[in-house]
Specification:
The chain is an alpha/beta fold and about 290 residues long. It has helices at about 1-10, 35-50, 65, 80-85, 100, 120-125, 135-140, 145, 160-170, 180-200, 220-235, 245-255, 270-285, and strands at about 20-25, 55, 105, 110, 150-155, 170-175, 205-215. It is globular, with a radius of gyration of 20 Å. The structure holds adenosine-5'-triphosphate and magnesium ion (MG). Adenosine-5'-triphosphate (ATP) binds next to helix 2 and helix 12.
């Protein structure tokens, strides 16, 4: 028995190194507000600044994977890696490793996903290990926070177990939203879920780094009123300058490119706005206290 326990003991008393990487989630349970668009372009903005960036597509719709040209049908993807990381689900394990699934576009890596991820909640329903901590453990087991400076997570438009996993594994959250009454209610609900996560006491609550008004039309009075109302209800200084409805974003996505792939003058403003989002993340990180 003694030999079994000695195997489990750490070999030395060296302090455990806390990894430097940060997980940043683009989150809003409302659909179509710009989570994928913002996550994708901010990842490239961070990479432009020289950071090592990994994107994670945690939405079964696989839109981020599509932007990387890496939709997965009939192949292993992130869902299988997550299941692989759960010891109790050994009968479901596959042979693929992170390196087999990783794809690269320009200077950004991605772990793509596919349809099977929609069955995640059901697949893990019966395990006895904490189901909210699967993603966090996956990062730890694969040492991803030592590998990358930033892991950018694209979230599904829900507040289910997958998103709770994302909240438990993230240090920062970015919230794109449309300025309307529905969004206001949605944001209030999100903050309730964040409180629930805090109360679970499993991990440190992530910081909300920015609220990002998207597809804003200042010609509509009601939108301006709703935007002002929402901004005043959020923590001071966290609502960034709005993104307007921009044909350039539609064009770049149709070509599966980021705004940084275009040299024209008409892309300068968007590039500046995404660089600003990257700066918000890096400035926050510089002052992040463990
Ligand atoms: N500022 C913008 N100007 C013009 N089109 C935009 C803008 N932001 C996003 N879009 C477009 O709006 C659509 C929805 O955006 P996106 O897919 O990023 O939202 P989402 O929140 O990720 O949606 P879902 O909840 O379904 O995952 C996309 O077709 C995208 O190209
Ligand atoms: Mg999306």
């Amino acid at each position: 028995m003694a030999s079994l326990f000695s195997k489990l003991k750490p070999k030395t008393n060296e302090p455990v190194q806390v990894p430097n990487g940060k997980v940043i989630a683009f989150l809003n349970q409302k659909g179509g507000v710009g989570k994928t668009t913002m996550a994708y372009n901010t990842a490239f903005a961070l990479a432009e600044q020289g950071h090592k960036v990994l994107c994670l597509d945690l939405d079964p719709q696989s839109n981020l994977s599509l932007l990387f040209g890496a939709e997965k049908t009939g192949e292993h993807h992130l869902h299988h890696l997550l299941i692989n990381s759960i010891r109790e689900l050994a009968p479901l394990h596959v042979s693929s490793l992170v390196g087999d699934i990783l794809v690269r576009k320009g200077n950004v890596d991605l772990l793509p996903t596919g349809q099977e991820l929609s069955g995640f909640e059901l697949t893990v329903a019966g395990i006895s290990a904490p189901r909210q901590m699967i993603l966090k453990r996956f990062f730890e087991k694969n040492d991803l926070l030592n590998e990358y400076d930033y892991i950018i997570v694209d979230c599904p438009p829900t507040l289910g177990l997958l998103v709770v996993n994302i909240l438990c594994a993230s240090q920062g959250v970015m919230i794109p939203f449309r300025p309307d009454e529905f969004s206001r209610k949605g944001l209030a609900h999100f903050y309730e879920v964040l409180e629930d996560v805090t109360e679970m006491g499993l991990t440190r609550t992530p910081d909300v780094l920015a609220h990002i008004p998207n597809m804003v039309d200042l010609r509509r009075k009601q939108e301006v009123t709703d935007l002002e109302k929402i901004s005043s209800e959020m923590a001071e200084g966290t609502t960034v300058e709005p993104f307007f409805n921009r044909a350039q974003l539609v064009k770049s996505q149709a070509q599966r490119k980021s705004v940084y792939d275009f040299k024209g003058k008409d892309f300068k403003q968007l590039q500046g706005q995404f660089t600003n989002l990257a700066n918000i993340i890096t400035n926050w990180n510089e002052h992040y206290e463990l």
